[in-house]
Amino acid sequence: MALYLGFDVGTQGTKGVVIDDAQRAVVARASASYGLIEGLPAGYAEQHPDTWAHALREVTTRLLQQVDLKGVAGIGVSGQQHGCVTLDAQGDVVRPAKLWCDTSAAAEAAELSARAGRAIPAGFTAPKLVWMREREPELWKRVDLVLLPHDWVNYKLTGLATMEPGDASGTGWFDPQTRRFCPRTMKLVDARLPGMLPPLLESGAIAGELTASGAKWIGLPQACVGTPISTGGGDNMMSAIGAGATREGVAVLSLGTSATVFAHAAKPIVDPRGAIAPFCDSSGGWLPLLCVMNATGVLEEVRAAFGGDLESLTREAERVEPLCGGVMFVPFLVGERVPDLPHATGSLLGLRPGSLRPGIVFRAALEGVALNLASGVARLRELGLTVDTVRAVGGGARNALWRAILADALEATVVPLSEAETGALGAALQAAWTRRRASGEDVSMDAVASGWAAPASAPSRPDPRRVLAYREARERFVRAHGA
What is the DSSP letter of 420? Predict the structure, then answer.
């Protein structure tokens, strides 16, 4: 067997998979859940990296119960993007990490964007550092090293600090066109920032080897010491690999706490409006990406309000006519990134007597997220990307009703994939690619990833009549959030 281990350190939990690259099969999988730090002010979203460490050890323990990892050939790490991990000179965490969904630095983001002459969203890493510099100056003085979540895990495993272009694209101080850090933007954040950043490695490089302390930290056998660790990447970059978006023409829709739509590109695609992020991917190309902050969390809010479970709410929503008789849910419960409204709140519009039934509100939530995504996908098309078919991944992709709504709203065929954890799978596949290249094999990331993205069920195809209705609804949706 040629075993590779992939981790995905997310917002709601950490997942792990072990793949046999020779047999092209997942041979073990495990997960561990956690939440945000509670009791913080509105707009704050933080986790301590120790939370991720505990979950990684739990996942590793469960994987070891399923497969012998003594001969693992490589390890890859996927992590939630934009998170701000600050370490002191001893390598200790200075404060909990501010996450992608933290909007407390919205004012700093607006000021930084104005000074930089381009949009830097509040969710990116750079505004979080400005926030820390201005509001926690004593803690900021202690900062010696700045990492992203997946970089921190690599650091703990190898003892070496590195970054790579994919995840670094979401910091705000990285130029995706040149695939290098931008000196001017770094200085706008802080004159000390260039000295706080680790070396930038190209995707496909080896970030380091598993050390004895790293093996002990994560709970792997000491026989694994020396295993190469790939550069890894952000969760969207790794999901692109796991879903097969390693060549042009493949678009992916990821439905999790946030929702993203992205596709591989052979050259950088820059949106002057800033709605589409001009990310690099983690295989040497680019990954133009739409990200909205409100997705499955909106469904959970409805479930919490009405009780029951998502399955029963879906059955009730299936009995409700498309577009809910005029009821519209603008689902910006935690602010929004696209459109750039970090302080926005959610709205239920068009209510009449009887409108507050669970099925209506739940369907309106499904449609509200879909309409917001549809606005972003329209922008992707304007920038020249073809989005005729999307591969759907993530927890929300299991909902057949939502897939049907998305097909009509996005005007694209939606294909659910059998492997939901494409981030962890992508990390394992990148580790296999890295190890094979290091051994002298001339192989592309697309060749390694090809064939892993199998459909889980029949695709959902857009209905021409409903497409027109959702297109009109999208115009109303844009007017509603514009107000």
Answer: S
Contacts of 474 (CB under 8 A, 6+ apart): 371, 374, 375, 378, 409
What whole-number distance in Å separates Cα of residue 143 and Cα of residue 375?
Answer: 40
List of residues 6+ apart from 217 with CB closer than 8 A: 53, 57, 156, 157
| CA-atom Rg of the chain in angstroms | 22
CA distance 98 to 125: 8
d(CA 101, CA 342): 9
- Give the residue from 337, 414, 404, 321 showing the smallest Cα distance to 375: 337
Q: Which of 21, 235, 281, 408 is catalytic?
A: 235
Res 287 pLDDT > 80:
yes
- Residue 171 and residue 94 in contact, taking contact as beta carbons nearer than 8 Å: no
Q: What is the identity of the amino acid at 164?
A: E
Instruction: Say if CB 206 and CB 228 are below 8 A apart.
Output: yes
Which residue type, as a one-letter code, is found at position 234? G
Tell me the pTM: 0.90
**pLDDT at residue 1 in the model:** 65
- Known catalytic residue: 235? yes
Cα Dmax for the chain: 69
Among 211, 122, 104, 232, smallest CA distance to 172 is for 122
Structure tokens at 409: 């709203």
Question: In degrees rounded to 5, what are phi and psi of residue 344?
Answer: -65, 160
Q: Which residues contact 156 (CB under 8 A, 6 or more apart)?
A: 53, 214, 217, 218
Q: Which of 397, 393, 395, 425 is closest to 78 using CA atoms?
A: 425
Structural domains of the chain, with CATH:
3-237 (3.30.420.40), 244-416+453-483 (3.30.420.40)
- Distance, CA of 289 to CA of 459 (rounded, Å): 22
The amino acid occupying position 249 is G
- Give the SS3 label for residue 106: helix
Least confident of 56-65, 153-162, 262-271: 262-271
Dihedral sign, Cα of residue 127, residue 148, residue 195, residue 94: positive
Give the angle 329-334-340 at the CA atoms, nearest 5°: 85
pLDDT band at 422 (very low <50, low <70, confident <90, very high): very high
Residue entry with tokens 């709504």: 405
Gap between the Cα atoms of 205 and 94, Å rounded: 29
Encoded tokens for 358: 């669970």
Strand-pair partners of 30? 16
Backbone angles phi, psi at 340, to 5 degrees: -75, 85
The confidence band for 52, taking pLDDT boundaries of 50, 70 and 90, is very high
Return the residue matching tokens 């693992």.
Answer: 72
CA 454 to chain centre: 21
Confidence (pLDDT) at 249: 87
